[in-house]
């Protein structure tokens, strides 16, 4: 049976504990003496902080291997074998759930469920998968992060408007899962989750000014400026997918308008074009499979999608002047050369000095990883991000 502990973030809101966590997060495993040296705090202060962190399960001790000079002092590290967190990514087609150590390293137990038709069934499905992961023997589950598409109100902790998963509108999936599972749960907007994943574990480590263009069921944007996510007044910023890209005769968007960028430059837009061509409904997984195996010629549809994607890329470069623009998209799985087409086309549409200042790269992180990063940040309170 697994133990279930609810951590009050206030418990680790204390400066000394936070500093110990921050040092171990950036340096990896260290002995108490090494932590004391890095922090400049006294050994008794460190011992006290470490004892508190061991007690709540955020840290664990690992014996260092014995050497000819005897057994060195045990190393402290973020709990990776005795504690875990869970990350959930909710999306229109399917939801993913994964467990990971407090070091963010995911376990090999990724679970996927087709997104159910209504909210109670969604909660049931996520609860069942989470409970299965929480039964790991000797491992305490400390919390769960939820990545949600669409608009998220961080003050209320609820979905506001999700054109692609409308069942979550006005719902509080993190609070509802916390009640069912008895662990701390937090909610993140999915583009913010991707930014966190990339900054904690991916290619944006150490970057304070970058943007993330997320091409999935919709088109989302996360912009980090001076180390802070730009969220707008209520956390609703970044909805680039609903920028009008086709002014006349555009397709109907999930938001109710016509011709939005995500009606022409998203996975679902490509799937819709492919469905029309094939005369039957196909989802993006099938489209990628059909196109990569050469069974269907979707070159014209792909060219159209990437042309509009470049419009979005140029808009982000001109608006935010990011040092790096990450693009998270499965479209590049179909044909690696498509990425270069996007970069070239965006170059032609951006202001030259802004384009010259920006590196465009494919994102490495995932939303489930971002959900994991979000809950770890929440529990350790180690990095100040306004939205978490
Ligand atoms: Zn729209």
The average pLDDT is: 89
Please write the CATH class name of the largest domain: Alpha Beta
Order of strands in the sheet with most strands: 5-4-3-6-9
- Uncertain runs are 1-13, 382-388
Largest sheet: 5 strands, mixed
Instruction: State the distance separating the first and last CA atoms.
Output: 30 Å
- Please give the radius of gyration in angstroms: 22 Å
- Name the CATH superfamily assignment of the largest domain: ATPase, nucleotide binding domain
Number of helices: 13
Structure summary, number of beta strands = 14
Q: How much of the sequence is in beta strands?
A: 15-25%
Small-molecule binders: zinc ion
CATH topology of the largest domain, by name, is Nucleotidyltransferase, domain 5
Structural class: alpha/beta
Q: In the CATH classification, which architecture of the largest domain applies?
A: 2-Layer Sandwich
């Amino acid at each position: 049976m697994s133990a279930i502990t609810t951590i009050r973030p206030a418990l680790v809101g204390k400066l000394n504990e936070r500093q110990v966590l921050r040092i171990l997060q950036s340096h990896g495993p260290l002995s108490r003496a090494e932590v004391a040296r890095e922090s400049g705090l006294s050994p008794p202060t460190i011992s006290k902080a470490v004892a508190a962190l061991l007690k709540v399960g955020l840290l664990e001790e690992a014996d260092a291997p014995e050497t000819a000079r005897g057994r060195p002092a045990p190393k402290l590290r973020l709990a990776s074998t005795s504690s875990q967190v869970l990350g959930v990514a909710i999306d229109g087609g399917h939801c993913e759930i994964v467990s990971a150590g407090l070091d963010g390293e995911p376990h090999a137990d990724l679970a996927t469920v087709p997104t159910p038709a209504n909210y109670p069934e969604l909660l049931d499905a996520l609860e069942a998968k989470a409970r299965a992961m929480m039964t790991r023997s000797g491992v305490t589950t400390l919390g769960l992060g939820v990545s949600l598409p669409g608009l998220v109100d961080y003050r209320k902790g609820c979905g506001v408007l999700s054109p692609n998963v409308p069942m979550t509108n006005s719902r509080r999936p993190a609070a509802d899962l916390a009640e069912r599972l008895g662990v701390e749960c937090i909610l993140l907007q999915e583009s913010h989750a991707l930014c966190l994943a990339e900054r904690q574990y991916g290619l944006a480590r150490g970057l304070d000014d970058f943007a993330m263009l997320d091409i999935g069921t919709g088109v989302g944007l996360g912009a980090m400026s001076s180390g802070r996510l730009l969220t707008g007044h209520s956390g609703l910023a970044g909805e680039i997918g609903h920028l009008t890209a086709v002014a006349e005769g555009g397709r109907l968007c999930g938001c109710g308008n016509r011709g939005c960028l995500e009606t022409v430059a998203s996975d679902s837009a490509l799937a819709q074009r492919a469905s029309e061509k094939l005369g039957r409904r196909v989802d993006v997984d099938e489209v990628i499979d059909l196109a990569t195996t050469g069974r269907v010629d979707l070159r014209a549809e792909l060219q159209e999608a990437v042309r509009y994607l470049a419009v979005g890329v140029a808009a982000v470069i001109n608006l935010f002047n990011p040092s790096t623009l990450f693009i998270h998209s499965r479209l590049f799985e179909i044909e690696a050369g498509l990425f270069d087409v996007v970069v070239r086309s965006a170059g032609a549409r951006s202001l030259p000095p802004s384009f010259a200042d920006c590196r465009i790269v494919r994102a490495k992180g995932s939303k489930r990883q971002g959900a994991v990063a979000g809950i770890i940040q929440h529990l350790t309170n180690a990095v100040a991000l306004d939205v978490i």
